Amino acid sequence: MTFRVDVIVKEAPQFAAGLGNTIWLCGVSMALSLMLGALFLVPLTSQKPNVRRVAQAAVDAGRCIPFLLLTYLVYFGLPSAGVVLDKWTAALATLVLYNTAYMAEILRAGWASLPAGQTQAARAFGYSGFLLLRRIILPQLVIALGPVIGNQLIQLIKDSAFLSVITLPELTFAANEVQSYYFVPFESFLVATLLYWALCAGIEWLVRRTERWASRMRRGHA
Amino acid sequence: MPDSKAVPAVELRGVGKRFGDHEALSKIDLRVMPGETVCVLGPSGSGKSTLLRCINWLEPPDWGAVFLSGVRIGVVSGPEGKRPMNDRELAAVRTRIGMVFQHFNLWPHMTALGNVIESPIHVQRRPRAEVVEEADHLLEKVGLADKRDVYPAFLSGGQIQRVAIARALAMRPDLLLFDEPTSALDPELVGEVLSVMKDLAHDGMTMIVVTHEMHFAREAASRVLFLDKGRVVEEATAEEFFERPATGRSRQFLERYNR
């Protein structure tokens, strides 16, 4: 068997485009999910038990739907209900919907683990609203949750491969196109795998840098 | 004796607070003149901490009024009548009242210096260079100049509490509240914190100190307020209170500490 490097080189632009689409789709939906998840904190931490229960049920349900099924539902199912989305909008909506449930839960748990006294001290020192969030709460959440959020991003990137079923030209779709045109499944899928791996390794590297920065504030580091 | 015509740094008139069915504080009257150190004593659950929290509105009182340098706080009277202060107005009041907590509550993602300069820069919006210079002075004053770039996790409890005092002073407050500042400390670390507080009292800082440290109260307090079950049982000078307690309840309380 010969390894068709020539095909890979020739089709490099298609792989690059697929990788690019995977990156921006996951990046944008991660940012949106973080914001929506933060908004979801309001009902999730509400003083009213009923509001809290409904919000928690919605988040739990969101986390239980398989990504592939959610993709089918949004792209093929919603048109029956009169909502027709083009594949890009459907892809983004699916990613955001799916990921927001996770982000909300991650942020809620992180918020709950922050000692109440620090927030209270901040209020006593004149902090409130957005300033309190920006200066006191969010930095501590990022430090505490950096690795968890990084992990979730990796999960999201891998799940996004399912978007190839709605012919969205992301990395897995590109690999499939190349292999079926040239009959080179091994070469094509191997390249896609390596690209996914490199992407995730990059995220891991970023997470480790955040961790190193955070560890300067914790006891017990070398 | 403080001048009776002067405006009190803080004045409470009939302040009360209820938690559900439990009346945590009832009808507290208190005047603290500028430069005074008032120690609030009493058994646990007597409402001491609630009293402090009512002063800076961390717990809005259910009754009564609080005045800071003669101006009512927590409530704004306008042409349309009275309304509670909003977050921004409360924040402005709170920057004039420093607070030191039992459990320190330093912000763990900032160094000692970072904790001290944080609120003057971001809440009071004072120029950074000026704030840093003042913060370095304050850290020196509490004996921690060499720890300015250290994160709280690497400081001892006593050092943390001294940073917390510097943090409160950096706001240039009119009044400092101490909520059992040494109760969470190992016994051998209590002294270093109390000595900083004694210096402050000596320098004429206006302070209200909730404490179980009777020696400190005896030495540093201008006056003592003895609370039990949410009421003021006795208010006296430190000397009177410790030498000639006027009520059976305060005698009983002191005996337990002197035993």
Concise overview:
The complex is a heterodimer of chains A (222) and B (259). Chain A has 222 residues and is mainly α. Chain A has helices at residues 5-10, 12-44, 49-64, 67-77, 87-113, 116-124, 129-159, 171-182, 185-215.
Describe this structure in words.
- With 222 residues, chain A is mainly alpha-helical.
- Chain A is 79% helix and 0% strand.
- Chain A has one domain (5-219): MetI-like fold.
- Chain A is built from nine helices and no strands.
- The longest helix of chain A is centred in the first third of the chain and has 33 residues, at 12-44.
- The radius of gyration of chain A is 21 Å and the shape is flat.
- Chain B is of the alpha/beta class.
- In chain B, helix 6 (187-202) links the parallel strand 9 (175-179) and strand 10.
- In chain B, helix 3 (112-122) crosses helix 4, helix 3 (112-122) runs parallel beside helix 5 (157-169) and helix 4 (128-141) crosses helix 5.
- Classes of the chains: A mainly alpha (222), B alpha/beta (259).
- At the A-B interface, helix 6 and helix 7 of A face helix 2 and helix 3 of B.
The chain pair forming the largest interface, with residue counts per chain, is:
A-B, 23 and 30 residues
Total count of helical runs of at least 4 residues of chain A: 9
Order of helical and strand elements of chain A: HHHHHHHHH
Oligomeric state: heterodimer
> Helical stretch count of chain B?
9
Helix content of chain A: over 70%
The low-confidence runs of chain A, each spanning 5 or more residues with pLDDT under 50, are none
Q: Give the number of domains of chain A.
A: 1
What is the N-to-C order of secondary-structure elements of chain B (H for helix, E for strand)?
A: EEEHEEEEHEHHHEHEHEEHH
Mean pLDDT across all amino acids of chain A = 87
Q: What average pLDDT do the residues of chain B reach?
A: 91
